[in-house]
Amino acid sequence: MRVDFHTHIIPEYLPDFTEKHGGQRWPTLEKTCACGATIMVSGKNFRDVTDQVWCPKKRIADMDREGVDIQVLSPIPVTFSYWAPSNQALEMAMIQNNFIAETVAEHPTRFVGLGTVPMQDTDVAIQEMKRCIEELHLHGIEIGTNINGKNLDDPYFVPFFQMAEEWNVPLFIHPWETLGKDRMNHHNFMYTVGMPSETALAGASLIWSGVLEKFPKLKICLAHGGGSLPYILPRLDQGWNVWPHLRLTTYPPSYYAKQLYFDSLNYDSMNISYMINRFGHEKILMGSDYPFLLREIDPGKNIDDTIQLTSDERADLLGKNTLRFLNINLKRSTEYVSSLQSRE
Asked: Name one GO cellular component term (predicted).
């Protein structure tokens, strides 16, 4: 059973919010051919995409070829639109959440969905999170690493994390609007350096501020293997040790980092081994970043190449950990296997 936790999807026909609401930062999807499009932001090409990013049948064909049983669908972070008025951002979020829920409903054995919420308004975000879970039957929420420059430890977001813990809603934290953007214009460093650094800052903020101490049952998964966070934890601990006047937690950062989950997208089996040793194999979820260029092909390759794993550990990393994280009864995997066998 292979469950790809980290994949992205967008509706094929995304409304033009620039025309509807004004402003230039709304993402639009402009078709270039029957099987391709460009995501445009502020009149510029943000990213070229193929029909893999909106077509469930194309995704399923890729999944069958690459041995993936289930994909977890989440929005593309450029659509978060935290900069917009919350009512407009909510409209953008609802379009995507409804689309993801419909895609899952059409292919319930192949897809699981995560929603998105307008984090610039905590009250609205909480209400949409509730709708995602209770009405749309999505299994978690994807949020960005910062909201309009505010780190996730800002007191404004505490009620959101409180309700996510109370309702047992898993959160997938994905980098966007990365720090140091003005220094990363060349070499696509925004993706290879900026995003890992941005994710480390988000994780460190949640740890150092005491958010994770305050909400010990909060389920959070950091994208891209946690970025650089796993590798700077000893430095964070050293800072905690030598600056007692800055401490906001009972224990050093590495203690709380063990509450976090991480996808496996770090491209190196040595890094997988390091993360297993530091956090435990049960905290690693297989994720590929399908369908983008930086994705891992085939999904789970790093885990396959990690030779010291037992068969049970490998099964957990490739799928069971994700199902547990998303509060999906493992019976679902048995039902899926049975459905495959019935087709044969």
From this structure: cytosol
- What domains lie within the chain, and their CATH numbers? 3-8+58-343 (3.20.20.140)
- Integer angstrom CA distances of residue 220 from 97, 217, 268: 19, 9, 22
Q: What DSSP state is assigned to residue 319? A: I
Question: Residue 230 — very low, low, confident or very high, per pLDDT cuts 50/70/90?
Answer: very high
Provide the residue type at 63 as one letter: M
**32, containing H or E segment:** strand 28-33
Cα–Cα distance, 269 to 190 (Å, whole number):
23
Distance, CA of 148 to CA of 151 (rounded, Å):
9
How far is residue 309's CA from residue 114's CA, in Å, rounded to a whole number? Answer: 29
Q: Which residues pair with 111 in a beta bridge?
A: 71
User: Which strand ranges, in their side-by-side order, compose the sheet holding 70-74?
Assistant: 3-8, 70-74, 111-113
More confident residue, 237 or 40: 237
7: closest CA among 68, 93, 98? Answer: 68
| C-alpha–C-alpha distance, residues 202 and 222, integer Å | 9
CA torsion, points 83, 23, 100, 316, in degrees to nearest 10?
A: -40
Rounded Cα distance, 210 and 189, in Å? 31
pLDDT band for position 340 (50/70/90)?
very low
CB-CB contact of 276 with 284 (8 Å): yes
**Model pLDDT, residue 341:** 36
Is 302 exposed, middle or buried, given 0-12, 13-18 or 19+ CB atoms closer than 10 A? Answer: buried
Q: Express the helix, strand and coil content of the chain in percent, nearest 5 each.
A: 50, 15, 35
How confident is the model at residue 330, as a pLDDT? 76
Q: pTM value?
A: 0.95
DSSP 5: E
**pLDDT at residue 43 in the model:** 85
